[in-house]
Amino acid sequence: MAKEKSAKKVSIIVLAVTFVILLFSVLSSRFTPATDQARVQGLSLPLAPMVSGYVTEVHVSLHSEVKQGDTLFVIDRTPYEIAVKQAETNLENVTQNLTAGLSGLKGAAAQLNSARVNLQRAKKNWERTQRVMEQNEGAFSQADRDRSESSYLTAIERVKTAEANLEGQKTALGPTDADNPLVKGALNQMEKADWDLAHTIITAPSDGIIESFNIDTGYYASAGRPLASLVSNNTIWIQANFTENNLTHINVHDEAAITFDIDAGEVYKARVASIAYGVKTQTTNAGDLPTVRGQQGWLRQQQRFPVIIELENKEVYKKLRQGSQADVVVYAEDGFLLNTLAKFKMWLTSKISYVR
């Protein structure tokens, strides 16, 4: 009988402990949700040249720390310097041709003025001849009359020809300022040559660390193909993936705690910065039907959503590496017992990081 009572007590105690643990697990998943699926995320920028050519200078190496604007690589500038000189020469030629065209325009205008003066003289002479012949038909011979009329008609044609020549000169010359098509084309060519030359020097777009580096001088760089990667240390965030039931009471600005495997033994204060509103669950092409997969097992797998965690101490970001793993807990409510247990769990987790 004593053994049966003892076994019964043990069973009751085990059931009670199991119930308490289960209750603690359910409550903590709602009010102090935690996850070990957290990583340090950041931006990785490909360092691709804008122009092609052979690399003549390399100012960095693998894992070099650089500042924004630092020179990283230099591509052979010689062909681009030649292109700039050629563009400058072309602009000078266009300017000279424009000047010559202006001279021709002035000459055509002068010819038109001379033709108009001759026309006025011929017109007056023809009108005088007509008046004299009306008063005295025999004052001029037929040859003199024809000569005067021919001079007048020839003067008219010369004025028309000079006007047409002037209009042709204007049309061919176009605008005489920067709106001239030839001038525009030459300026665009020079601007493009200057732009290409400037981009033979590849600089750091932000502060960071050089990664994926495996080139040296003499390497042929193609425009648009990365030479290396820059891991930015200006834009770093921590993404913690919580299950759906963890999100029940989590709100932006909730207090949180985080420990990193890379910095074992330390627990840092943090805050919830943002919560994702959706994740991709299936791939559906336009015009196609969605794919539905059956759930196997008694309990379906819980969907996780990213929650962005922000450290209170910004200096800690300098210790971190992109891809580092972390453990996160969020204090969604002010429950003293659950928060105390969660803090103890985080402290213990940080110490276990030494050996795992």
Short key terms for the protein model shown above:
44% helix, six-stranded antiparallel barrel, single chain, 356 residues, OB fold (Dihydrolipoamide Acetyltransferase, E2P), alpha+beta, elongated, 12 strands, 5 helices, four-stranded antiparallel sheet
What does this structure look like?
Helix content is 44%, strand content 23%. It has 356 residues and is α+β, with helices and mostly antiparallel strands. Among the domains are: 47-77 and 198-228, OB fold (Dihydrolipoamide Acetyltransferase, E2P) (Beta Barrel); 79-196. Strands 1-8-11-10-9-12 form a six-stranded antiparallel beta barrel. A four-stranded antiparallel sheet has the order 5-4-2-7, with no helix packed on it. A hairpin with a 7-residue loop joins strand 9 (255-260) and strand 10. The radius of gyration is 44 Å and the shape is elongated. The model has no long low-confidence stretch (mean pLDDT 79).
Question: In brief, what are we looking at here?
Answer:
The protein has 5 helices and 12 strands.
Task: Annotate the secondary structure layout.
Layout: H1 2-31, E1 34-47, E2 53-58, E3 65-66, E4 71-75, H2 78-135, H3 142-173, H4 181-198, E5 201-203, E6 208-211, E7 220-221, E8 228-243, E9 255-260, E10 268-275, E11 304-311, E12 325-331, H5 336-352
Antiparallel strand pairs: 1-8, 1-12, 2-4, 2-7, 3-6, 4-5, 6-8, 8-11, 9-10, 9-12, 10-11
Helix pairs in contact: 2-3, 2-4
